[in-house]
Input
Amino acid sequence: MLAMANTPKSPALQQLGGNLVLAGAGKMGGALLTGWLAQGLDGGEVVVIDPQPSDEIRALTARGVRINAAASDVGAVATMLVAVKPQTFAGAAPALRSYAGPSTLVVSVMAGTPIAALAAQIGGHVVRAMPNTPAAIGRGITVAVAADDVTPQQRATADALLRATGAVEWVEDESLIDAVTAVSGSGPAYVFLLAEELARAGVEAGLPEALATTLARATVAGSGELLHRSELDSATLRQNVTSPGGTTAAALAVLMADDGFRPLLTRAVAAAAKRSRELAK
Ligand SMILES: NC(=O)C1=CN([C@@H]2O[C@H](COP(=O)(O)OP(=O)(O)OC[C@H]3O[C@@H](n4cnc5c(N)ncnc54)[C@H](OP(=O)(O)O)[C@@H]3O)[C@@H](O)[C@H]2O)C=CC1
Ligand SMILES: O=C(O)[C@@H]1CCC=N1
Output
């Protein structure tokens, strides 16, 4: 598993007040679990439900994490984090329901799966959230929305669980989550594609492939870190690279043309948001 950027202990995670069931320990669920354990969550309170857990997840049994324990052996579940694929949720839900009680906090990170569907199929008090994979290094951002019946304490628990992997924003309007998913949930893939295509374009411009790949990766990573650390907005950082009449201006004339980045990203984000809405059906 990847190292977290920082690992301050979270008092809230050390006092969850009962068992936590993680349903689906794949890329996203695994990243969240890494963050929780790094910030002091007691592995003995965690139960992972996953038909084929990875070796990394299996290794967490050394920290007390229980894997695929029967609901009857787990006892009361204070919190359930649902990170199965939306397409497998309907099949998984009956088993998950057996772990949840009427006062269980159910936090879902599934794309396109409404609070109403979660409440109907699992029960409990539902928080719907959309994280992203930089969560694996503590640099994610999550947007969350709580059902009306979520108590302030449950909301604080959900906030602590999600904040263990980066920033958290709360919204009141669930319909915003489709656009959130399209921007920050899926967004890392757009950035990684930029690194891929920058490398490919470097090869087209005459660079050896290995050097082009190294340059593109370092450029995307370094620019992201600069954006993270700088107080300047992205437009100013862009302008700081752009000498009048220079090379960057020549490239930006292409990227900022009428058929450049803006319409392309607008279409891409709209397609992702549309898909999120479709998954709800
Ligand atoms: N990846 C991302 O960037 C993000 C993902 N999400 C959401 O997170 C969720 C998981 O995505 P991701 O981690 O990428 O997908 P993964 O396929 O990596 O993880 C899903 C995990 O759930 C397991 N699983 C399958 N069926 C069940 C079941 N019945 N009970 C318990 N676990 C089961 C899968 O096992 P197996 O592989 O054996 O089928 C797998 O380990 C999705 O709903 C997605 O929308 C949200 C934000 C970002
Ligand atoms: O592609 C997906 O559907 C998930 C949700 C956001 C990122 N990955």
Observations:
- The mean pLDDT is 94.
